[in-house]
Amino acid sequence: MHDLPALALFFVVIAYWGRVAAMSWRIRRRTRTLSGVVPEQPLERFLWWFFIPVVALWIALPLLAGLRSGGGAALPLVVREGAWLALRWCAVAVAAGLLVATIRCWKRMGRHWKMAVTPGERQVLITDGPFQRVRHPIYGYQVLLMLASLAVLPTVPMLVVAAVHLALMLTKARNEEAYLLGVHGEAYASYMARTGRFFPKPPR
């Protein structure tokens, strides 16, 4: 028996990471290097050993849950019907909305979008649009997308993936902030003071 919410989530997640792959390929074609795509910093290289399996499982688990009725990745019967099923469809809709919101961020960054810190290269500081109140809206949306994925797939494997993903996002965001603070100095310090990391700061 196919599980349609899980399959719908699979298509959202594959669209997300397919767009990332396409943007990475454009960087490679434009610059003739992998700078900004493949990590150069030792910390980011270390994080990649965890990030790549997380993304692979994020894509695979919804597909397996959608196509299989048994095994460790299968969904409990209780979440396939009634109120649970309605909640899972709502989470799919939220996931699709987060994809649209992330595309808006990618478009605002344009040619300045990169996957990795590039030491020695002055990164343009973007502080308007989706970045006006949040320093890392893409990461914030990605965290929410992972939580929506967990709501669609409330399984132990997906919970483990979500926990590792959150730790990776926190570590990567802090590392980027330290780098940008060193590059932009007071301008970035002021930006940090008035913005939230993943979500807007609450009004005083």
Explain this structure to me?
With 204 residues, this protein is an all-alpha fold. Helices cover 67% and strands 0% of the residues. It contains six helices and no strands. The protein has helices at residues 4-31, 42-67, 82-109, 137-152, 156-184, 186-194. The longest helix has 29 residues, at 156-184. The radius of gyration is 18 Å and the shape is globular. The N and C termini lie far apart (51 Å).
Quick tags:
mainly alpha; 0% strand
Brief sketch in words of this structure:
By secondary structure, this protein is mainly alpha-helical. The protein is built from six helices and no strands.
Give the strand content: under 5%
Uncertain residue ranges: none
The largest sheet, given as strand count, sense and whether it forms a barrel, is: none
Q: Please write the string of helix (H) and strand (E) elements.
A: HHHHHH
Q: Which structural category fits the helices and strands?
A: mainly alpha
Distance between the termini: 51 Å
What is the C-alpha radius of gyration, as a whole number of Å?
Answer: 18 Å
Shape assignment = globular
Number of strands: 0
SSE map:
Layout: H1 4-31, H2 42-67, H3 82-109, H4 137-152, H5 156-184, H6 186-194
